[in-house]
Design a protein that fits this description.
Oligomer: single chain
Structural class: alpha+beta
Strand order of the largest sheet: 3-4-5-9-8-7-6
Number of helices: 10
Bound molecules: biotin
Strand content: 25-35%
Shape: globular
Number of strands: 14
Radius of gyration: 21 Å
Helix content: 25-40%
Length: 321
């Protein structure tokens, strides 16, 4: 279906005959594929007798060749999949299959996108970025400490550079605009974290999504398009993301998170705010002091400083501090 979608992505009318001729298939085969596009990808297609078919809104598909040709950072090889369960799951399968490292997996949509703390990540077709980068990490726990915060910083840089200047970070690695979530990071490990392991850096960024999937998202959210009032080029975002990730990961892997601690705190939207931290069954109330050299959050709790870390922790504002 992807070749057909590429022909239709301009949002203009194309006759069944012209589409069939370009693809080397019959008009009825074109029609069947159009039905599948509508049904499987929930892409509305308009049909007008005498003019042909067009997508309700134009699409700009991800383009691995364009991303490669315009790479300014590490030049990680990129694979684009039209549809996958989860780019993180796919990356883990590719590690098992001994694909050479590093590499990036992108998808136009995910059918079982994974979020932190067992949540799902809403991933409609063609709108957003679903990105997984796989790296080999040799330094054990020291290199992994704070890694997800360093990734959040790289993600924030590309988002601000693209115009969403008021975006900021929420510990550990959410990107928010005000209290609305714009992007999230999910790290998954394969191998022995104390020795040599592979880390899958999964990033979900709401780029051009407007209202379609809103009902399924269980928290306030936004997208770059909603903030900027214009469609954002996802291929350019991938190039920028690779460039910023390659810089921040290099700093993190050479010097550890302590080298990024100050910069991270400057971007933290909840510095000094009163929060509730849910850690297991007992919520902890405190005031955010910052993050420590390992990326743990520092809270003032009953007049004493405590640090908390762990992927299962979640933080929310207490009242409206
Ligand atoms: C979060 O809950 O904030 C983290 C969301 C991470 C979503 C991304 S989308 C690409 C990658 N593949 C997944 O299944 N999840 C991550």
């Amino acid at each position: 279906m992807l070749p057909l979608l590429k022909l239709l992505q301009d949002g203009q009318f194309h006759s069944g005959e012209a589409l069939g001729a370009s693809l080397g298939i019959s008009r009825s085969a074109v029609w069947k594929q159009l039905q599948s596009l509508q049904a499987e990808l929930s892409l509305p297609i308009h049909t007008v007798r005498g003019r042909g078919y067009r997508l309700e809104s134009p699409l700009q598909l991800l383009d691995a060749a364009w991303i490669d040709a315009n790479a300014t950072g590490a030049g990680w090889p990129v694979t684009v999949l039209p549809s996958v369960d989860s780019t993180n799951a796919e990356a883990l399968r590719r590690i098992e299959a001994a694909q050479s490292l590093p590499f990036v997996v992108l998808a136009e949509r995910q059918t079982s996108g994974r979020g932190r703390r067992g949540r799902s990540w809403v991933s409609p077709f063609g709108d957003n970025l679903y990105y997984s980068l796989v790296l080999r990490v040799e330094g054990g726990m020291r290199q992994l400490e704070g890694l997800s915060l360093a990734v959040g910083l790289a993600l924030l840089r590309v988002i601000r550079e693209s115009g969403v200047v008021e975006a900021g970070l929420k510990w550990p690695n959410d990107v928010l605009v005000g209290e609305r979530k714009l992007a999230g990071v999910l790290l998954e490990l394969s191998g022995d974290p104390a020795d040599v392991c592979h880390v899958v850096i999964g990033i979900g960024l709401n780029v051009n999504m407007l209202s379609a999937a809103s009902a399924a998202i269980g928290q306030p959210w936004t997208s770059m398009r909603a903030e900027l009032g214009r469609v954002v080029n996802r291929n350019e975002l991938v190039v920028g993301l690779n460039r910023h990730l390659s810089h921040y990961l290099d700093v993190q892997l050479r010097h550890g998170f302590s080298a990024l601690q100050g910069e991270w705190q400057d971007c933290h939207l909840w510095q000094g705010r009163e929060v509730m931290l849910t850690a297991g069954s007992e919520p902890v109330a405190g005031i955010v002091l910052g993050v420590d050299h390992s990326g743990a959050v520092r809270l003032l709790v009953d007049g004493q400083e405590h640090s908390f870390s762990g992927g299962e922790l979640s933080m929310r504002l207490r009242n409206d501090s």
